[in-house]
Design brief:
- The chain contains 6 helices and 20 strands.
- The protein is about 15% helix and about 55% strand.
- It is mainly beta.
- It has a 20-stranded mixed beta sheet that branches.
- The radius of gyration is 25 Å and the shape is elongated.
- A hairpin with a 4-residue loop joins strand 16 and strand 17.
- It has a domain of about 110 residues.
- The longest helix has 16 residues.
Length: about 350
């Protein structure tokens, strides 16, 4: 579109879905005002103010599905000469058909990467921040009262239900960041790919069998690192009743593949006082610092299909025992995960 006017003029366009107003000044587009109904559920309106160095969005929505946010956010790999500033108020953010957030504020500053990002709702059920750190990479902090719904919306996992989620980490760019993900008091959904794994592990957990809580877990901690196109998880662990898991692996989001190996066993076999019980010490362990009685498992995902392999109980190699003792490092802290 070519404008020949040398004075400020306004151009308007309207149809059933959109109402757009353009302000042209000295043959340059300076301001766009718009209201747009994306479909029967989602809407977006506001303004875009353009200058030589900045593009400022002031946006509002009555209803918006969480899955659409990424399509409006700047992409990490896209370079731009302009600094992008977005301030967005959403009355009803639809995480899923079962979970919605009211009066959500989103504020961000972006130029080749997120310089600042803040997302939070009125009741603070969801919080996520990227904020500057003068001494190095930016800080990352996140919290959600409903980990299962957020992880599903982010397409990280559809297997978790409920739980409180905490995130703390560092951000350099979309291709380089690290964080520790912690989830408290969650459960695995019924009919997941991990059902056989859970049944075999909770066989040792008399408490969960009696209480019919085999799929409930008290805590998970997963150190996560993004390097270029790969995501690495190293020495993560899960505690559920009297059973402990550790696992490590990597995810390739582009190829949609993942590969993890892990170890599990009943926590009461690994207690630090096991050396004081001669019978258990001889039968269940072979030098506590070298090997433990437990079992190995692996989880692989290729072309959307997940396979779980479980090996029988055996003496586990030294490399795996280093992982399981991370659980006891955590238990000895004797404090809530959000107190760190």
């Amino acid at each position: 579109m070519i404008f020949n006017s040398t004075q400020a003029e306004t151009y308007k366009f309207k149809n059933k879905e959109a109402n757009i107003e353009l302000l042209i000044n000295n043959n340059e587009l300076n301001l766009i005002k718009f209201e747009y109904e994306l479909d029967q559920i989602n809407d977006i309106g506001g303004s875009l103010e353009l200058s030589d160095n900045e593009a400022k969005f002031l946006l509002k929505s009555k209803n918006l599905e969480y899955s659409l946010l990424n399509s409006f956010f700047p992409k990490g790999s896209k370079k731009t000469n302009k600094k992008i500033i977005i301030s967005w108020f959403i009355e009803n953010l639809i995480i899923s058909k079962n979970y919605q957030l009211k009066n959500v504020n989103i504020n961000l500053i972006y130029k080749e990467k997120f310089e600042e990002l803040a997302i939070f709702d009125e009741l603070r059920e969801l919080e996520f921040f990227i904020y500057p750190n003068l001494e190095g990479p930016s800080n990352v902090y996140g919290y959600s009262i409903n980990a299962g719904e957020i992880l599903a919306a982010r397409k990280i996992s559809n297997d978790i239900s409920g739980g409180s989620m905490f995130i703390k980490g560092k951000y350099s760019s979309s291709k380089e960041h690290s964080s520790i993900l912690r989830i408290k008091d969650f459960r695995l959904k019924d009919d997941t790919k991990f059902e056989n794994l859970i049944k075999s592990t909770r066989f040792f957990d008399i408490v969960s069998l009696i209480n019919d809580t085999q799929k409930s877990f008290s805590y998970m901690e997963a150190p996560i690192t993004k390097e270029n196109d790969l995501i690495y998880v190293k020495d993560a662990f899960i505690i559920g009743g009297l059973v402990g898991f550790t696992f490590s692996g990597e995810v390739n989001p582009i190829k949609k593949t993942s590969s993890f190996d892990g170890f599990y066993g009943p926590l009461y076999l690994f207690d630090k006082y096991i050396d004081q019980i001669p019978l258990f010490n001889k039968i269940l362990t072979n030098n506590k610092n070298e090997s433990l009685l437990g079992a190995n498992f692996s989880v692989n995902k290729v072309d959307g299909e997940t396979s779980v392999t479980i090996n029988p109980l055996s003496l586990v190699t030294p490399g795996k025992t280093k992982r399981i003792f991370k659980i006891f490092d955590f238990l000895k802290k004797d404090k809530e995960p959000n107190q760190e």
